[in-house]
Amino acid sequence: MNTTGTPPNRALRRGRPVRVAAVAVALLITTAATVTTAAARTVPTVPERPAATTPTAIDPAAERPAETPPGVVDLEVEFTVDNVNRTRGRCSADGEEYTVRGHLTAPEAVLAADSPSVALLIHGTNTGEWIWRLDVEGRNYVDELAERGHASITIDRLGYGSSDIPEGFASCSGAHADIAHQVVERLRAGDYEVRGDDPVAFDTVVMGGHSSGALVAESVAVSFGGVDGLFLTGWAAVGITDDTNRRFLTAYRTCLEGGEEHTDPGDPRGHVYFDPTLEDFVEGGLGPHADPAVVAEIEGLWGRNPCGVMVSEPMAILYDLDLVGEIDVPVHLVFGAHDVLRQGVEGYPGLFTSSPDVTETTLADAGHFVTIDAGAELLYDTAAEWMERHAPTS
């Protein structure tokens, strides 16, 4: 399946692109370590976003809250996990037990099936579970997939949203991959809490990841296995832009000082905004043709990120680039043509040299938040077709 018109370059030699990309990420790490503002690499210019795309207000009549489709359940779930890092990428975590929370959104028929399948969906650094379940009709990924016959588990990662929020340096990117692996194991065993129902043991578990959530998913596949496929959106471990570097370096400096200032004594320390301003958050996430209802909804979702996770990601990317060729399950990648955080990603699918099936989709009008941006209907259709091929429920 390829909706871009150009097949992935499966003949691409792995060594050279990995070395080039690794140099780019290494430059970002070196730049961060010296706390300078120099760009780590030169990248193609992102298509300019027209002025006045982001409205300051929205007509209440235009609001379209998402509604759970008929025959679909949307249930709260909890997973007890250990904050440890047993991946092949080194970083530190506090080793404590925590609870991560989220939702199971699925057709009732899937949950009653003999061999059910599910996608565990992981959000990126500067978002949350909401990137998969935005409260806007027609832009709620899990509802759209459920209408097409597929089950999803979404979670807030440790340190985000409804999940436990320890000090910001208590965890790291590798630990988040380990936690995701633990969730996969519990989904297969039916060993988790479901409010108002009994847990289901899933026979097939694929992982979806948005942005650095895709890095988490790739790390799970490399370090632990146990997943049946990867559906990755808004991500490539190459193509880091000047916009990405500016955000990262600003946040890195703040983390060196202990994180954002705050006055609430109960607010855990060591957290930072990846996007320095609300305008950066909106323009870094959405393309020039975003639905005004989506723009208005996400303006209230700009949030802080755990410093330990964010500052460990450049090194995690280096590990990922060295190991991504070992991933041996089907992979589908979704890019946004107007993504200001990733450009020049055409060679990335070719790095999955051990995968039996690598496909890709590019959304012509979308930015970084491809799951909720303009043209997302193509993503929903593509995801459902991919699930039918690689994670069917029987």
From TrEMBL:
Residues 120-377 form the AB hydrolase-1 domain. It comes from the Bacteria. Residues 1-38 form the signal peptide. Keywords: Hydrolase, Signal. InterPro entries: AB_hydrolase_1, AB_hydrolase_fold, AB_hydrolase_sf. GO terms for molecular function: hydrolase activity. Residues 44-60 have a biased composition (Low complexity). Residues 44-70 are annotated as: Disordered. Gene3D superfamilies: alpha/beta hydrolase. This is Alpha/beta fold hydrolase. It comes from Nocardiopsis lambiniae.
